[in-house]
Amino acid sequence: MDAFYASVEQKDFPELKGKPLAVGGSEIRGVISAASYEARRFGVRSAMSGLQAKKLCPELVFVRPRFERYTEISKIIRKIFYEYTDLVEPLSLDEAYLDVTQNKKGNPSASLLAQEIRKRIFEETGLTASAGISINKFVAKVASDYNKPNGQKTVNPNDVEPFLEALDIRKFYGIGKVTAERMYQLGIYTGKDLKTKSLAFLEQYFGKSGVHYYYIVRGIHNSPVKPNRISKSVGAERTFNENLSSEVFMEERLESIAKELERRLQKYKIAGKTVTLKIKYSDFSQQTRSKTLPYFISDKSLLLETAKELLYQEKLKESVRLLGISLNNLNTEIKKTVVVQLRFEF
User: Fold this and answer.
1) Angle at which helices 208-216 and 199-206 pack, to 10 degrees?
2) 82: containing domain
3) Does 110 share its domain with 87?
4) Which of 55, 134, 232, 331 would bridge 155 by S-S if both were Cys, CB 3.0 to 4.6 A apart?
5) How do residues 17-62 score in pLDDT, each as one tens digit?
6) Which residue ranges make up the annotated binding site for Mg(2+)?
């Protein structure tokens, strides 16, 4: 989907249409969840602080996220997908992989199917979508950003390697800013430059990821579309209006975060063993602390107790702007029956 959260807000509230819009955050603090294309022209991006975004775009309008509404529309879109294939692997509310090799419409053209699906999405939601069509998930993902917004790009089998060779390394899905900078230092600016490096060279500088880079630049990515994609973690977090320097106040915030996490876990009937506390300091540096329990948990009291223990594990470096609790090592990762440890008050 194209700028999904922001596009939903502009559709539901026509007075916001055409305006630079940020979903989440504020001009004082907080982090932006999404930005409209009007805001992106000023350099505003998701995960950017609201304060920084406002400096880049003084006319920026902030709105609160409405995740229930985004989920509602996401379900409509996903229903459309399933009319074409059962092999749908959701990545998030606004993105998914579809394998249409064998499809319910009997149409041998993936490009025509993508065009039809995008048309259906617009007719039923009023929102635009972009698509990438190719031989595997990696190339399709890269291609999906090529003609955004409201476009699509097909990379045929014979065109895969030339397409990847011509790309700036920053356009490769999975290569972030830090990795791109390191590649620049090694003289790797494009896919063609990356392709000249040996497997041994890439392993030396990038470890296991080097093996991945070696194959993807050659268009090799054998991961199938997984229709039953299982979450590896579930979490909740809060950014505070004012930085917190007292653990006592942090405990109060952790209680509400644990309550929200419990709600999410119960909704999906999930439990886990490893509790992770996420701490973001006032200088935007980040720290995580984890503890693995000998049993599965999902209730608020045990989540909160473990999070507090992690909070006091070591002294905080600075005042804190964000706290989060996540649970992984989930019971969704095993097939056998699990026992969830509950706590009873006596």
Assistant:
1) 140
2) 70-157
3) yes
4) 134
5) 999 999 988 887 777 889 999 999 999 998 888 889 999 999 999 9
6) 94
> Per-residue pLDDT tens for 164-191?
999 999 999 988 888 999 999 999 999 9
* Euclidean distance between CA atoms 186 and 188, whole angstroms: 6
Active site includes 237? no
Give yes or no for residue 346 having a pLDDT over 50.
Answer: no
Q: How confident is the model at residue 338 (pLDDT cuts 50, 70, 90)?
A: very low
Binding-site annotation: residue ranges: 94
- Strand order across the 34-35 sheet: 34-35, 21-23, 61-63
Phi, psi at 22, each rounded to 5°? -120, 130
- Judge whether 20 lies within some domain: yes
For residue 239, being part of any structural domain is answered with: yes
- Burial tier of 173 (Cβ tally within 10 Å: 0-12, 13-18, 19+): middle
| Active-site residue, selected from the candidate residues 95, 161, 247, 260 | 95
Note the pTM of the prediction, 2 decimals: 0.72
User: Is residue 275 located within the same domain as residue 183?
Assistant: no
Residues 151 and 175 placed together within one structural domain of the fold = no
226 within domain boundaries:
no
Give the CATH number for residue 253: 3.30.1490.100
